[in-house]
Design brief:
heterodimer, A: 82 residues, mainly alpha, B: alpha/beta, 16 helices, binds flavin-adenine dinucleotide
């Protein structure tokens, strides 16, 4: 990931809910450096969700619909562990 | 490098609104629907504004669940404010509240409903019937997504009305001409790193709160008080900044809010002995007493050794007796928050909570029309032409020394709309656009140039951390004269350090380091205003308790603080105890 991509991702992780901020901050610390393109795209897809839906997913209250590529579920698992 | 040339591009608008939370969107809607050319700037996509976090609801005396009226709502708000609220603004807000809530319903807001189709209302701390007799159901909500639903309804409506959104644009500074009139803002486009001037006939700040001056807060990272910083740098004073609301139930350690709705539905607080201690502090409303009363009671329990947890530094919020079904149905999401950030399942175990910084009662001084007012030529409330503020960054002042839950969403709807109406009036009476002053962009450009060229400076992140720690240690619920005085000294030193922050990354596109360094310029103004104002106020009122003056002191302190950046100067102005039509509610001792 180049600097611009990383910066964009970081700003995308600025959310309206502190819950999401806290989880995403931890995630970036732990995993940002090792993200490949496929997983970065998956993460960005999750970040398109509105804050309540995102938090519902991160907290395990809802599940991501079945049938997407495995990388989405892998990213989600990493996020949930943060 | 950012564009620091003299040829900064300029765009012209009738009105520029900085902020796309509830307040900014409500105001913009008023303007666009009136056919005005209105720009709305936001650091993030509008529906990601912090208003999205509001769960508890919006207060209005609709009386859908039994008798209620605006006189009772007014009494609760004045009493809640510990008499520091201006009663003209409070009357205006509570009387207008039902109308703006119904309007929102018509905009498509999916409120919870009663069987007869009216909006369901739930009880909330500090709201009562018959002047404090017993709790009333006044809060209108959309499940646990009130703020989210509000932002979506208002955003859609704005799109329809052709409001022009500038998303991921950060306003940097206010532009005033030599007469003091406000003529717009400078702003940075994150995507390109370019600076542009938004030249406007009227400018409204709706930039939200600044809870991030503290370490422990319920506020999202975005709440950096930008509007307050910009106003302060442009010579506008900040009002009542010593008053910060500590929400009683932030998850210990994380800050994440557990909504008051939990206590509304029957949850209550316990100390380490399992005692329901609020019965001692507020025999009538108990755990549903006003937030400051509950927070002070909790802080007292902890201070006197009855705190729970390993370190004895929290109390416990019990709700297991409500049963899993009620918790899941009426309080969705609470279990997940408790599990994630406190490691407990509240269906079985209580949640460790502490008073946590939540809401800024003070802000940019306005009257109840949303017009910014400052002392000038002997008039304490002289209007600054062309400048407006609404929502959490404004101070009308309806919340005084302590805000009631649900009154903030009421505030942003009422004053968002009112400031929109004021702007429409002002533009009618003042046709034409005054010329920009020659130095319009200078302040911002020199701030950016300083960041570009700074060497041997400190990391902004380190300085920000020290600022937060200092605020947390020196300016909490309990305040001590010596630690406050020391806090003033420290925060001034940190303020100096802020002028020498350095960023390593000097790239142009989406430079988040630059953005955060610029945010710190705003945070530090808010922090200094808070500490200096708190140090001077030798009484205990509303949100805080001062160790050398435990009581409220109406003889000397029934007045609003005004802090000026220049020289950390303090001034004061009287509280307006005269409502518009109702009888004045005279100060008396607060009991719940
Ligand atoms: C967890 C939580 C729960 C709450 N629950 C309730 C509740 O139930 N009921 C209630 O009444 N109140 C509640 N509150 C308080 C209430 O949500 C806020 O006070 C209110 O939403 C603030 O709205 P606002 O429009 O003033 O600002 P925000 O919604 O914070 O919006 C600020 C806007 O300004 C923009 N902005 C800021 N700086 C700049 C800049 N420099 N340039 C461009 N744009 C900028 C941001 O991008 C954003 O769009 C709650 C608060 C929290 C933290």
């Amino acid at each position: 990931m180049d600097v611009v991509e990383f910066n964009r991702l970081r700003w995308n992780c600025r959310r309206g809910l502190l819950e999401n901020d806290l989880v995403l901050e931890k995630f970036l610390e732990r995993h940002a450096e090792s993200l490949d393109d496929v997983h970065l795209a998956a993460l960005n897809k999750l970040l398109e969700l509105d804050d309540n839906s995102l938090w519902a997913l991160l907290s395990g209250r809802t599940e991501y619909p079945e049938g997407s590529g495995s990388e989405i579920y892998e990213i989600l698992a990493l996020l949930r562990a943060c | 490098m950012a564009n620091v040339g003299r040829n900064t591009p300029v765009r012209k608008f009738d009105a520029v609104v900085v902020g796309a939370g509830g307040a900014g969107l409500r105001a913009a809607l008023q303007l666009s629907e009136a056919g005005l050319k209105c720009a709305v700037l936001s650091k993030v996509f509008p529906t990601r504004s912090h208003t999205v976090a509001a769960q508890g609801g919006v207060g209005a005396s609709l009386g859908n669940m039994g008798e209620d009226n605006w006189n009772w709502h007014m009494y609760d708000t004045v009493k809640g404010s510990d008499w520091l609220g201006d009663q003209d603004a409070i009357e205006f807000m509570v009387r207008t509240a039902p109308e703006v809530v119904i309007e929102l319903e018509h905009f498509g807001m999916p409120f919870d409903r009663n069987e007869d189709g009216t909006i369901y209302q739930r009880p909330f701390g500090g709201h009562s019937m018959n002047f404090g007799e017993k709790p009333v159901q006044r809060s209108c909500c959309a499940a646990d997504r009130t703020g989210h639903a509000m932002l979506h309804a208002l955003y859609q409506r704005n799109v329809r009305a052709n409001t022009q959104f500038f998303v991921e644009w950060m306003a940097l500074d206010l532009i005033r001409d030599p007469s003091g009139q406000v003529l717009g803002v400078t702003a940075l486009e994150m995507e390109t790193g370019e600076v542009m001037v938004f030249h406007a006939r009227a400018t409204l700040f709706a930039t939200g709160g600044a809870g991030r001056i503290y370490t422990s807060t319920t506020n999202a990272f975005i709440n950096t008080g930008d509007g307050l910083g910009m106003a302060a740098r442009a010579g506008i004073p900040l009002e009542d900044m010593e008053f910060w609301q500590f929400h009683p139930t932030g998850v210990a350690g994380a800050g994440v809010l557990i909504t008051e709705g939990v206590r509304g539905e029957g949850g209550y607080l316990l100390n380490k002995n399992g005692e329901r201690f609020m019965e001692r502090y507020a025999p009538n409303l108990k755990d549903l007493a006003s937030r400051d009363v509950v927070s002070r009671a909790m802080a007292t329990e902890i201070k006197e050794g009855r705190g729970a947890g390993k370190e004895g530094d929290c109390v416990l919020l019990k709700l297991d007796h409500l049963g899993a079904e009620v918790i899941d149905k009426r309080l969705p999401g609470i279990r997940e928050i408790a599990k994630k950030f406190a490691n407990v399942d509240p269906v079985k175990d209580p949640i460790p909570v502490v008073p946590t910084v939540h809401y800024q009662m003070g802000g940019i001084p306005t009257n109840y029309h949303g017009e910014v007012v400052v002392p000038k030529n002997g008039n304490a409330n002289s209007v600054v032409p062309g400048f407006y503020a609404a929502g959490e960054c404004g101070c009308a002042s309806v919340h005084g020394a302590n805000r009631l839950g649900t009154n903030s969403l009421t505030d942003l709807l009422v004053f968002g709309k009112a400031s929109g109406d004021s702007i429409i009036r002002f533009l009618k009476e003042n046709p034409g656009l005054k010329d920009l002053p020659k130095d319009a962009g200078d302040r911002s450009l020199s701030r950016l140039a300083r960041l570009e060229s700074q060497t041997n400076g400190e990391s902004y992140a380190e300085v920000a951390k020290d600022m937060r720690r200092t605020m947390q240690m020196h300016c909490g619920v309990f305040r001590f004269p010596d630690t406050l005085a020391e806090g003033v000294k420290k925060i001034r030193e940190i303020s100096d350090r802020v002028t020498r922050t350095e960023i390593k990354d000097k790239s142009k596109v989406f430079n988040t380091a630059r953005i955060e360094a610029l945010e710190l310029d705003n945070l530090i103004e808010v922090a200094r205003a808070t500490m200096v104002s708190a140090d001077a106020r030798t009484e205990s009122r509303g949100a805080h308790d001062r160790s050398d003056h435990h009581e409220r002191d109406d003889v000397n302190w029934l007045k609003h603080t005004l802090w000026y950046k220049e020289g950390d100067r303090l001034d004061y102005k009287p509280v307006n105890l005269k409502p518009l039509t109702a009888e004045s509610i005279e100060p008396k001792v607060r009991t719940y």
